[in-house]
Design goal:
The protein is an all-alpha fold. The protein has a domain at 1-29. Helices cover 47% and strands 0% of the residues. The chain is rod-shaped. The chain starts with a helix and ends in a 24-residue tail after the last helix.
Length: 66
């Protein structure tokens, strides 16, 4: 029975801490855009990230093959 006197205040403190962390996450914008990262995977980006060199084009040979 004496453990109840310890567990009840600890559980109240723990619940208060969880609520505080949840409210901090809401205020800091953690839940603003939940679908944006998922849609960015699906979107095609057709622009090349690395420009290709023009000097080796046209001969039809792939480097490393002989």
């Amino acid at each position: 029975m004496e453990i109840i006197y310890l567990l009840i205040p600890l559980s109240v403190i723990l619940v208060g801490l969880i609520i505080w962390i949840f409210l901090w996450a809401i205020r800091s914008g953690q839940f603003d855009d939940l679908e944006g990262p998922a849609h960015s995977i699906i979107m095609d980006d057709d622009s090349p990230q690395i420009p290709e060199a023009d000097e080796d084009k046209g001969d039809g040979e792939v480097k490393g093959e002989r």
